[in-house]
C-alpha cells in the first residue's frame, strides 16, 4: 500500500443517463482518475413510478427514468473540479432533470488502493 | 491531458492508399521514426504485436495502433488520413481511413492510457472525424486536431 500524497475525497456521482457511462469513464482516464466502482441503480422516482401502483396517478411528478449508475471514486482533491467539469460537459447542465448529481465526502481512513 | 503536448505537425500525414494494414504500419513507423529519432523497426514490430492481440479499429473507421517502448522518453501521438482507407483486419469495420498512432514509455503505462482516452474523447466530438477526413495536408490535420482538443475540458 502506498499512502496518498495529497488529501483525498470520496466522489459520488449518480448518472441518470446510463448510456453515458462509457463516455464518462473514458473522460476519467483522460483527466487522471484511475479507479472507480460503478453500480447499476434506480432512483426513488423510478421505483415509485414503476413498482408502486398506489402512486401511479402521480407518476408524472417523478419524470421518466430508465435507471441510473452510481459511481464511487476516491480521488485526490485536485481532481474534483476537473471531474465536475467533465460531468457537466458530458451530461449538460447539472441543474436539468435526469442529468446527474455529484457530491464529495471527506475520506477519514484510506487502505488498499495502490497507485 | 492535452494532445498538443504530444503531437506535432511533423507527426501528421495524409497518405495514399496502402497495399495492406501492415504496409501502412510500416510506413507510419518509418515516418514517425524519421521525425522523432525512434527506432522505426522496433516501433513497427511493437505496433504489429499489438494488432496481433486484436484490431484497434473502431466501427467509425478509426484505428488506434499503439506501442510501448523501453527507450522512449515521453509520449508521441501521430495522426494519418489514409486516402481510400485500408482493411485493418477488424470484424467491426471494412476499412479504416483515420489512424492515430500512440507511442509511449513502458514505465508510464497510465500516461499511455490517459492519452488513448483523450484521443477517444476527441474522436467523439460532433463532426470531428468529418473534419479530419476533409484535411488535405498533414498541417491541416494537425490544426483540426488541436482545435478539437481545445474544445474539451
Secondary-structure blueprint:
The complex is a heterodimer of chains A (115) and B (153).
Chain A lengths: L7 E8 L5 H11 L5 E5 L2 H8 L16 E9 L3 H12 L8 E7 L9
Antiparallel strand pairs in A: 1-3, 1-4, 2-3
Chain B lengths: L11 E4 L5 H16 L3 H13 L9 E2 L2 E4 L6 E11 L9 E10 L3 H15 L4 H7 L3 H14 L2
Parallel strand pairs in B: 1-4, 2-5, 3-5
Antiparallel strand pairs in B: 4-5
Helix pairs in contact in B: 1-2
- CATH class identity of chain B: Alpha Beta
Give the termini distance of chain A in whole angstroms: 8 Å
Q: Cα-atom Rg of chain B, whole angstroms?
A: 14 Å
In N-to-C order, the SSE pattern of chain A is EHEHEHE
How far do the termini of chain B sit from each other? Answer: 9 Å
Uncertain segments of chain B are none
CATH topology of chain A: Alpha-Beta Plaits
- Round the mean pLDDT of chain A to the nearest integer and report it: 86
Give the overall pLDDT of chain B as a whole number: 93
Strand content of chain A: 25-35%
CATH topology of chain B: Mannitol-specific EII, Chain A
Trace the largest sheet of chain A across and list its strands: 2-3-1-4
Biggest interface goes to: A-B, 13 and 12 residues
Count of strand segments of chain A:
4
Given the structure, what is the number of helices of chain A? 3
Helix content bin of chain A = 25-40%
Residue runs with pLDDT of under 50 for 5 or more positions of chain A: none
Instruction: Assign an overall shape of chain A.
Output: elongated
Rough outline of chain B: globular
Order of helices and strands of chain B: EHHEEEEHHH
Amino acid at each position: 500500500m502506498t499512502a496518498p500524497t495529497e488529501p483525498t475525497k470520496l466522489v459520488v456521482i449518480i448518472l441518470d443517463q446510463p448510456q453515458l457511462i462509457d463516455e464518462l469513464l473514458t473522460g476519467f482516464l483522460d483527466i487522471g482518475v484511475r479507479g472507480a466502482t460503478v453500480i447499476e441503480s434506480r432512483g426513488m422516482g423510478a421505483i415509485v413510478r414503476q413498482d408502486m401502483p398506489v402512486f401511479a396517478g402521480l407518476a408524472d411528478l417523478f419524470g421518466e427514468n430508465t435507471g441510473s449508475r452510481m459511481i464511487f471514486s476516491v480521488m485526490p482533491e485536485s481532481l474534483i473540479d476537473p471531474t465536475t467539469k467533465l460531468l457537466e460537459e458530458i451530461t449538460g447542465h447539472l441543474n436539468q432533470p435526469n442529468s446527474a448529481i455529484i457530491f464529495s465526502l471527506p475520506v477519514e481512513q484510506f487502505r488498499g488502493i495502490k497507485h | 491531458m492535452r494532445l498538443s503536448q504530444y503531437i506535432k505537425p511533423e507527426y501528421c500525414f495524409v497518405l495514399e492508399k496502402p497495399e495492406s494494414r501492415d504496409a501502412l504500419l510500416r510506413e507510419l513507423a518509418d515516418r514517425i521514426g524519421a521525425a522523432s529519432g525512434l527506432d522505426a523497426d522496433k516501433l513497427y514490430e511493437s505496433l504489429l504485436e499489438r494488432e496481433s492481440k486484436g484490431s484497434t479499429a473502431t466501427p467509425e473507421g478509426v484505428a488506434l495502433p499503439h506501442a510501448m517502448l523501453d527507450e522512449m522518453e515521453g509520449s508521441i501521438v501521430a495522426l494519418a488520413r489514409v486516402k481510400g482507407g485500408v482493411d485493418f483486419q477488424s470484424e467491426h469495420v471494412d476499412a479504416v481511413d483515420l489512424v492515430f498512432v500512440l507511442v509511449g514509455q513502458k514505465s508510464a503505462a497510465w500516461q499511455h492510457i490517459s492519452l488513448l482516452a483523450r484521443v477517444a474523447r476527441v474522436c467523439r466530438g460532433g463532426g470531428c472525424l468529418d473534419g479530419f477526413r476533409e484535411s488535405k495536408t498533414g498541417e491541416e490535420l494537425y490544426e483540426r486536431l488541436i482545435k478539437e482538443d481545445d474544445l474539451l475540458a
